[in-house]
Design a protein that fits this description.
The complex is a heterodimer of chains A (239) and B (211). Chain A has 239 residues and is an alpha+beta fold. Chain A has helices spanning 3-8, 10-14, 20-32, 34-52, 62-75, 86-89, 93-115, 128-131, 163-169, 196-207; strands at 154-157, 174-180, 186-193, 210-212, 214-216, 219-221, 223-229. Among the domains of chain A are: 3-52, no CATH class; 136-229, TolA/TonB C-terminal domain (2-Layer Sandwich). In chain B, helix 4 crosses helix 8 (174-181) and helix 5 (111-127) packs antiparallel against helix 6. Classes of the chains: A alpha+beta (239), B mainly alpha (211).
Chain lengths: 239, 211
């Protein structure tokens, strides 16, 4: 039996788990080999020291504390009391709300019943488009006014305004807003003042006008033009 | 459950047999506080000693012992009697000690304080004497030896320390240790052999014990 084999089996030897023959051989080796014998003795000393170490005892009985804790646990929910659901902390809140809810329903139903024959509210008509969101400055929905920075559109082609159109206009002048779009067309013609029935054909002629668009910093912009149109009869002097 | 009127019967030894143990367990399962108090009183020394040696901290061991018995109380109904109650409780102690050490490791708890705590507690115990007349030199020597043993134990891995304590201090067989640690018996034997050698080296030449 080699020293390595002996050292590996010292634990089994100590526990008496080796057979008779291996145990005898190991005993013989330990008596003959000072190194293994010394190791065997130091192993026994170490384990004896461990076995003889005083048993540590708790300063006070643990049973009393454990039973105290079990008693506290058995008392009730403890902290859970603080985290109960709302309806458990106030169990009467919902039953007490039921009559109030029923009364509210009755009052609302009565109010609706009494209100049924009332006069209908007058219809309010709003011209939402005029107050709607406007586009960027210089576009057709938000045209610019003439200024030192904005050049005036110039008429490129105009539908002929015949004498008939002017005669139909009557005596009253017209105040007209024309929005000249960025491509030179007329996007809007609005009659601000005047007889709309008489002005209809004239406004249609204005709508067909084409312009050289107004510009700001060299770029075409939509421009709003205000025109006062009136009829003037020119007669030869009476001689 | 009143803590004040516990009727302890220390003479009720574990060697009283399986029937006594079974009867005690049944009484505890029926909610008999007196029976559970007896059960705790019978095992508290063993639980505290093992926990203190495994953790190296008497204060922690006291706290852990309470946790162990609370777990015993809550899970006693699942005890099937395949091993002895003592082996079953050992298993709970070892598992709780392992969990607590993991908890320490995650929080980088300083272990040096723990060792100091145990040494002081141990010295108080040693100061009471061994029950026989001994001179001052003998007492000092015994105290030094106990301190060296605890220091050497702390240098072993947790697994080696558990096997060694269950075998050499608590006197369990390899079969019982296997049941307590949920390990194959062969593994227990090889681990015990390595643990013994590690303790020998730690005590003789003071070198770092192999993990």
């Amino acid at each position: 039996m080699t020293c390595g084999q002996v050292r590996k089996r010292l634990s089994e030897y100590m526990d008496g788990e080796l057979g008779v023959r291996p145990a005898r051989a190991l005993t013989g080796h330990l008596e003959a080999c000072p190194s293994c014998g010394g190791r065997w003795r130091s192993l026994r000393t170490a384990l004896e020291a461990l076995a003889e170490a005083p048993r540590l005892e708790p300063r006070e009985p643990i049973a009393a504390r454990v039973l105290d804790r079990l008693e506290v646990e058995s008392r009730g929910p403890g902290l859970a009391l603080l985290f109960r659901p709302f309806w458990k902390t106030r169990p009467l809140i919902f039953p007490s709300l039921l009559p109030a809810a029923a009364l509210l329903v009755v009052v609302l139903a009565a109010a609706l019943a009494l209100d049924r024959d009332a006069e209908p509210l007058p219809t309010v008509i709003t011209r939402g488009a005029e107050w709607g969101p406007t586009g960027p400055s210089g576009t057709e929905s938000n045209p610019l006014f003439l200024s030192s920075e904005v050049s005036a559109p110039r008429v490129r082609t105009a539908a002929p305004i015949t004498a008939d159109l002017m005669v139909a206009l009557g005596e009253e002048p017209l105040f007209v807003e024309t929005v000249v779009a960025r491509d030179g067309s007329v996007s809007t013609v609005t009659l601000l003042d005047g007889d709309s029935q008489q002005a209809g054909p004239l406004l249609e002629a204005l709508r067909r006008q084409r312009f050289e668009p107004g510009r700001r910093n060299g770029r075409p912009v939509a421009v709003s033009l205000y025109r006062l149109i009136s009829r003037m009869e020119v007669r030869p002097p009476i001689t | 459950m009143a803590a004040g009127d516990i009727a302890l019967r220390p003479a009720e030894a574990l060697a009283g047999g399986a029937s006594l143990e079974r009867g005690l367990v049944e009484e505890c399962c029926r909610g008999d506080a007196q029976a559970f108090a007896r059960l705790v009183a019978l095992h508290e020394g063993m639980v505290f000693n093992l926990a203190a040696r495994l953790l190296g901290d008497a204060e922690e061991a006291r706290d852990l012992a309470q946790e162990v018995f609370l777990q015993v109380y809550r899970t006693l109904g699942r005890f099937e009697g395949r091993s002895t109650l003592k082996t079953w409780i050992y298993r709970i102690v070892v598992n709780q000690c392992r969990n607590r050490r993991r908890w320490w490791r995650r929080r980088r708890k300083d272990r040096s304080r723990s060792l100091e705590t145990l040494t002081r507690s141990e010295e108080e115990r040693l100061a009471e004497g061994s029950g026989r007349m001994e001179g001052p030199d003998e007492r000092v020597e015994r105290r030094e030896r106990a301190r060296a043993v605890q220091s050497a134990l702390q240098r072993l891995s947790f697994g080696h320390r558990a096997v060694l304590l269950l075998r050499e201090v608590e006197g369990l067989s390899c079969e019982e240790i296997a049941a307590a640690l949920a390990l194959p018996e062969g593994t227990v034997k090889s681990r015990l052999s390595r643990a013994r050698e590690s303790l020998r080296r730690a005590l003789t030449d003071g070198k770092e014990a192999a993990p």
